[in-house]
Every structure is written in structure tokens, then in C-alpha cells.
Amino acid sequence: MSTVASWWGELRERARESLSDPVSWTERLQAVKTALAVVLSWVLAVRVLGLPQAYLAPWTALLVVHATVYRTLTTGLYQVGSAVIGVVLAYAVGNTLGLSFWSLGLLVLMSFVVGALPRVSFEATDVAAVAVLVMVIGYARHEEMLAVRFIDTLVGIVVGLAVNILLWPPMRDYTAARAIEGVVGRFADTLRRIAADVRDGPNSQTVSGWIDQTRDLDGELDAMWGLLKLSRESGKLNPRRGARSVQQMTHFRELARRLEQAVAETRSMARTMGHSVVDVRTWDDRFRSTWLDLVDQAADALEQQDPQQLAGVRLGLDDLAHELSGEDLPAMYWPEYGALILNLRNIVTAVDLVADTSPTAHAVTGRPRLLRR
Length: 373
Prior knowledge:
mainly alpha
């Protein structure tokens, strides 16, 4: 019984978090808008315009409703072009060869050949899909039905575009902000892991793990840049207030660049420590304890968004360099000490803006007002 209660409590907590998440709301609204566009296009094509077998209207509306208004418009234009080419090919092949296994295969091949032509930006699969539908259903030989299929397609595009523009047109800045904060959190975990592994006694395997983790961060940074591009695109042709700010996104792009530099410095830091592991060098205890504490403090400052603590880390690095420069340390260690101090200082400098701001606080959009408490 306790297991069922625990499962039910966890399910309720996840549902509560999902209901309060602006990103989840955006995805749900897009799903509802897509379903609405499909239904409206079908009703308009069949009940209002009286088009026979208006299968292209809901199908096109389904493909047109996208994550941004700009992409909805461009996709709609591509769908018009794909439909025109597909219908023309079906008409040509159908009137020449009729419907058979050979003509159907030839039609698909021709569609892909046209889609592969230079300066043709239509998806070959979309062209082939329209051509096959027109061919199989038997409209390829009826000239009057070709115009009907064009109207059918336009209905789906217009309805999909109208629904996406008029009903809470999506802006993806909050999604991009969440992605940035996610990278910041995992970057802080990487710094903390490095400090913990060094205290436990690193080996070549742990060093490889650090480097692999920075490569994983590179992948997340690439995904983050993709979301930033999508966010900027969501401001184009968007009638909502704040769309111009979303389209510029200069602040988010600067945060992304700084995170890229910080990850690169962390990988350089890991490789420097890897040389110590390979050469079995023992660090000076004063440097080791102080530097590792500063790494942990930098991770905490990032996680807690505490710029003052991050500034303290920078001062601590200056004090460490000044203190050790007057000590009688082996000269062979100073290149490593200096490199590690410089790496961490560059990391702190790169992420100071990240710690001084909350990306989600700078996001223009969240849930619709009617859905906010």
C-alpha cells in the first residue's frame, strides 16, 4: 500500500511541476493548435467549400503548424510548391502510362529526381506523397480535379498559418533560457567532480572521464545554439509584444559564447592535470588544497548565481599566485601551477556574466496569462 501511495504522490508531483512549466505549456498548446488546425481545415474544405475527398487540407495543416510562425509560413510555401509539382507529375504520368506498378514506381523516382535538382528547395518526399495520393485515388486524369487539389492544399496552409498566428503564437525564448541554465548546472557539476576526483587521487581513467564530460558539454552547447536559433526565429513575423526582443537575443548569445570559452578552458585544465597524473607528480599541499577549494567555490557560485562569491574566487586566485610566487617551490611545478591558476581565472572571467543573471528571468514569454496563477 505504501508503494502505491508513494507512486501516486510522485505522479502528482510530476503533474504539478509539468503544469507549472512554461516549456511544457508551449508544447501542449502547439499540440492542441495542430489538432484544431486539422479539424478546421477539414470542416472548411468539406462543409464550406464542398471539395470532394479533401484529404490534402488536413494533411497540409498537420505539416504546416510548426514551432515558430516564420517556419509555419515558409513550410506552407514549400507545401504549395510540393503540391503543385506532385500534381503536375501525377497528371503527366497518369495520362501517359496510366496506373500500374511501373508507372507508380516511375512517379516516385521522378519526384525524387525533381527534389534533388539544384535550387529546388522542396522536400522530395512531400512531392512524392502528393503525387502518389493523386495518382492512386484516380484524379490524375481529371483536369478539373487538379485545381481542386490546389485549393485543398491552400485551405490547409491558410488555416494552419492562421491558427498558429492568432492563437498564442509561439516564442521559444524561455526554452532557450532553460537550455542555458541546464548547461550552467552541468558545467558546475563538472567542476565539482574534477575537484572531488583530485582529492581522491586521480588516475588516467578519471582524467579521461573529465575530458569526455567536457565533450558532452560541447554537444549540449551545440543543442543550445540550435535552440537559440529557433528562439530568434520565433520572433520573426510574430505579432506578440516582445517579439522584437526575442528576435535580437543578444544577451543569450553572449552567455552562450562565454559558456563555450569556459568549457574549453576546463578541458585545457583537465589535460594539464593529466600530465601530472602521467608523470606521477605530487603537488604542493598549500597549492593543492587552496586551488581545489577555489574550484568548488566557483561551482557553488555558478549554481547559486552568486557573482560576489565568484569575484571572491578571482581574488583568491590572485592571492594564491602572489603567495606561492615568494615560496621556494621547484621550478618544474610552476608551469602547471600557473596554467591551472590561469585556466580557473579564465573560467571565472568567462562565467561572471552567467552567475550575475538568470536567463529565465530575461525570457520575455512563459505561459499565457489565462493559465498563470
